[in-house]
């Protein structure tokens, strides 16, 4: 779920009313949003960078608001304000006007673009007036869209240009990297595409996008009539046509591998910022010529109509309202509606800002939001059902209590961990570990799903070295193991893990916890009908001090004294003993 940060004073000024934090939180809840945090830019930087934050950082109050992932129209201050004002009945939904295209602003695609990013759309905003706040919002919306629907520019890349600095018609081409040379945004000299790729390989923000086109024999490029490079999507725009506060006319182009997403992105941007045009909510279309000479007009800004049954809407939500009331509720969500068939049917106009509405259930949800979830009367289920606690969860709760009674403190650790945590630090190769790998990990700390609970507890010990010894921790949670016989290729396994850390290893204490658990589970110390310990070797444990826990002939876990190499890997200096067993066979 995306989170946007908006200046509180700017937001209240645009809404025409000042709220307390609690009042605004209530308004967000009624509108289907969540006020996540009240903070300042300085506090946000302190969280990210530590205590040392330079002088001059703003301390104005910021509201961080969680936005549903499919509500692209709420990702900026402009859309959020319009949505809230319409919801409160203080203004009607905006009516967008499409202005006729001008041939000089057309965009022509060459056949070569089919090799890399085959689609493009374009639009023009004329007579726009930027302030510092609206300019920042304009840039921030593009960034939010890039990270959200554009999937980090892999599906769509947005370029915005000062129309008065360039001349159309424009050409979208794909050229060998060495044939592309221009002055990139905020650079002082012209560089070729390979030089730019090398330059941005260490750039904090742009380096993540280089792989999208790096290995392609051709790079996409957009030029104007005079050969001036506007952008090399999806990496960087040209410096010549950069947007400033003085820009009055904006040319917007989106190149894409997914045409539908590009249409949604373009519609969203022009819908949000056409309010700053001299003719409010007016957008000029552009002709976009395909390589075969045919053309389409963009943006589409389509308003479509949907029809839903009043009876069905009431039944699904659990309310009893007439058609006129339901139409009024939908209109508060920017979905202008009218009744037909003597109030039995609703005809709903879905505007170009609401691309999230793809089915009648989306309309039912908006009715419920506008009606108020807290106003919907609770009612018992109409179907007779039986339910009960899952046996493995019931056993988990019982064992948690007993581990706590034995003097152990429960820890809840991350389900994701690094490859080193489940392999290298334990003295094994990652190839030999049945771990489920994350295909696109955000950080080095979250690369795989844990296959053991032990590393998480050791990291918890390392983070609490100042606590008095001995430290006794336990956790009962799931691990995930690759399993080709499972439908998903992996399976969950519930385990109990306990660690003792003190002046001495305390093996007898974790052994005692094992015996106590087995006694409660009514498993006798017997090779044939119960459990026993069998010596084994594991590189994570001290040589000769590791045993496998065997239950009726099957190994269900290990217990022993941890080896010095493992303790050093987790930056621990005191001896430790550990127990980890699979508890699912006991259900």
Automatic annotation (TrEMBL):
Protein's UniProt keywords contain Disulfide bond: no
GO molecular function: ATP binding; magnesium ion binding; phenylalanine-tRNA ligase activity; RNA binding
Any Gene Ontology biological process: phenylalanyl-tRNA aminoacylation
Location(s), subcellular: Cytoplasm
Protein species of origin: Spodoptera litura (Asian cotton leafworm)
Enzyme class per UniProt: ligase
Primary site of residence: cytoplasm
Lineage of the organism: Eukaryota, Metazoa, Ecdysozoa, Arthropoda, Hexapoda
Name the UniProt record assigns to this protein: Phenylalanine--tRNA ligase beta subunit
Oligomer status and interactors: Tetramer of two alpha and two beta subunits.
GO terms for cellular component: phenylalanine-tRNA ligase complex
PROSITE patterns: B5
